[in-house]
Design brief:
There is one protein chain. The protein is built from 5 helices and 8 strands. With 229 residues, it is α+β, with helices and mostly antiparallel strands. The strands form 2 sheets. A 5-stranded antiparallel β-sheet has the order 1-2-3-5-4, covered by helices on one side.
């Protein structure tokens, strides 16, 4: 799967069962079985509020628009009285309404080293990932210099390819894109930020300047994204 793949290929319509909350997730992502296979759910009743779902949906579409590989995602309804169990101590409520379902993939979290990138077959995605994080102020992967926040390796996922012989770098979890108030968008002096986001030290040697320029030139306007993305 690449950044141009059609997420409509995966079309879950109902949740069969909810399971445990994923450990370490600030939004208390829930493992679930859908009628189209296993998935991860972000629900309206998560501790960070419903805006996280909107940010993740828009951010994932923007990442795909830049040509990044993304997980297949769908909006699915949570009915009243959903069967299954959820840990009660995880501060998450299965509020009825729309939820984000992300298809479960086979892979693992990057270890933060350059050696951990050796089998990645799409290392050019590093450049686009840094562009995306900087474009969207995504503070939840690798915050910019001076930010009072730690890097989150859990948001750098390597998916198994070719029977496990190769890996694919994926753009995942965009619930904290656009953290700055967009009401200030009319005042560029209030939102300008020249610091790179998402730039882990091992990423630096894989940055491709010409690819960065070419990617930026290939994105004519957000109008195209909203109309055709």
């Amino acid at each position: 799967m690449d950044g141009k793949s059609n997420s409509a290929q995966w079309r879950p319509t109902s949740i069969v069962r909810c399971g445990a909350v994923v450990g370490g997730s600030s939004t208390r992502v829930i493992r679930a079985d859908t009628d189209a296979g296993p998935a991860y759910l972000k629900v309206l009743g998560n501790p960070q509020g419903p805006q996280v779902l909107a940010r993740d949906w828009i951010g994932t579409r923007l990442a795909k628009y830049l040509g990044l590989p993304v997980f297949e995602m769908a909006i699915i309804g949570i009915p009243d009285g959903l069967p299954g169990s959820v840990y009660q101590d995880q501060r998450v409520s299965l509020t009825a309404g729309p939820a984000l379902a992300t298809r479960q993939e086979s892979g693992y979290t990057w270890d933060g080293t350059d050696a951990g990138l050796k089998r990645v077959q799409n290392r050019s995605a590093v450049t686009k990932l840094v562009l995306f994080d900087t474009w969207t102020w995504n503070i939840d992967r690798k915050p910019p210099a001076g930010a009072d926040r730690k890097a989150n390796l859990g948001n750098v996922f390597l998916r198994y390819m070719a029977g496990g012989r190769q890996l694919q770098l994926m753009a995942i979890d965009h619930g904290e894109c656009f953290p700055k108030p967009l009401v200030n968008a009319g005042r560029i002096d209030r939102i300008r930020d020249s610091r790179p986001y998402g730039l882990f030290d091992p990423f630096r040697q894989h940055m491709e300047l010409e690819l960065a320029y070419g990617t930026l030139r290939a994105v004519p306007s957000l109008a195209d994204f909203w109309i055709g993305g």
